[in-house]
Amino acid sequence: MTTLLGIDLRGRPVLVTGGGPVAARRVTAMVRAGALVRVVSPWMCEDILDLHAEHPDAVQLHHREVAESDVDDVWLVHGATGDPATNLQLAGWATERRVFCTNGGAADRGTARTPAVTRSGEVVIGVVSGGDTAGSSHADPRRATVLRDRIADLLAEGELDLRRHRPGAGRVVLVGGGPGAEDLMTVRGRRALAEADVVVTDRLGPSSLVQRLRPGVEVIDVGKAPDHHPVPQQRINEILVEHARRGRVVVRLKGGDPFVFGRGGEEVIACREAGVEVSVVPGISSALAAPALAGIPITQRGLSTSFHVTTGHGGLDPAATAVVGLPGSVLVVLMGVSALGLIAEQAAAAGAPADTPIAVVENGSTPQQRIVRGTLGTIRAIARQRAIAAPAVIVIGAVAAPDVLGPSPETAAG
Q: According to its UniProt record, which residues of this chain constitute the active site (predicted)?
């Protein structure tokens, strides 16, 4: 249930007087809360007109001065006319009818105050300034806004505990943790972690965030390594469903993006078939992040007009070999370190010249990030010499050459 001022306004009429930007913000909030908004003002800004066009059934416009009768049948009044005398008169009319009224020009002269609001999932947090006594003269909306913004920062950083303390329906959230660095995880993903009762995690997720989870959060490690899958995918699906059915909020934390070779689609299907609510928080895929952090633009005017992303467990699949030799194409290979030599051979056999640049980015975004470069003809020997290891992203194409973006301080070139 969405609320405003702690009041359920769904389907209930409210009055907003004034047609400027402040009034537009209040109308927006009230529409989100499900209210039926009546706007009365001789003139109205484009934002209000747009809101009416977008929500014609929820926003009614009256191009005139406000009248006392406008207050007769509403549940809440907001005065934002810009004229203190009119706002005060409006508050008086509302008080006579026992209708709460906010005064946009003088918060302490109304019977209600509009909070500075921030949201995080199911939680709505409002900050109101002005003390706890009626008629307080210490209302300071700017202070409330500053405090609201600081709380929003803490929510975004995942620093506040948002777990439920009352029983509720369980659900699963698939969260993309990004390439590894915790500050490359999305705000929505951090907030999902703050709400989690259970975190089912992979080895490639942002481990530092998992280590800082609050006491009482159950962590289940189902991480997979090359040729070693201690927890099969079917069992992972069962774990998600089992905990959600116990009424828990379950976060399935993955490296990269859940739908980019993360088997997230299988987990969504398993939850839906079991009747469990499931949602997805996208993450930054290492296929894009690792090259970018290594200074490799996978599209670049004059060099690359398209890219193809694939996995390389057993070498290149037919779709990858079909594009790797094409001019202007770039091939990005995930999970292909163990087959790097084979991949280079297959790319050459598909028509890519032996001097085609290839770069391997290990542990992208982490302090252990390393970039190793070579060509299709040399990368096998370089990989052996430099002991290239997973996790790593392989980039094949002209953009993988050194100094594509100009001189670089990189010292790990092959």
A: 202, 224
Residue with tokens 């777990």: 163
8 Å CB contact between 375 and 396? no
Q: Inter-axis angle of helices 141-156 and 187-195, to 10 degrees?
A: 80
- Rounded CA gap, 167 and 155, in Å? 22
CA distance 414 to 357: 11
Cα–Cα distance for residue pair 242/321, rounded to 1 Å: 41
Report residue 6 as tokens.
């702690």
Q: How far apart are CA 395 and CA 33, in angstroms?
A: 48
Angstrom distance (rounded) from CA 221 to CA 237: 13
| Owner of token pair 């290891």 | 389
Q: Give dist(CA 11, CA 83) in Å, integer.
A: 29
Strand residue runs (E) in 35-161: 36-40, 59-62, 76-79, 100-103, 116-120, 123-127
pTM of the model: 0.72
Catalytically active residues are 202, 224
Backbone φ and ψ for 405, nearest 5 degrees, come out as: -100, 15
Query: Rounded CA gap, 254 and 259, in Å?
Result: 10
- Half-sphere exposure (Cβ direction) of 111: Cα atoms closer than 13 Å: 16
The answer to whether the CB of 294 falls within 8 A of the CB of 368 is no
133-172 burial, b for 16+ CB within 10 Å, e for fewer?
eeeeeebebeebeebbeebbeebbebeeebeeeeeeebbb
Assign 3-class secondary structure to 140-186.
CHHHHHHHHHHHHHHHHCCCCCCCCCCCCCCEEEEEECECCCHHHCC
pLDDT digits (tens, 9 = 90+) for 366-377: 889 999 999 999
Q: Which amino acid is at 32?
A: R
pLDDT of residue 3: 46
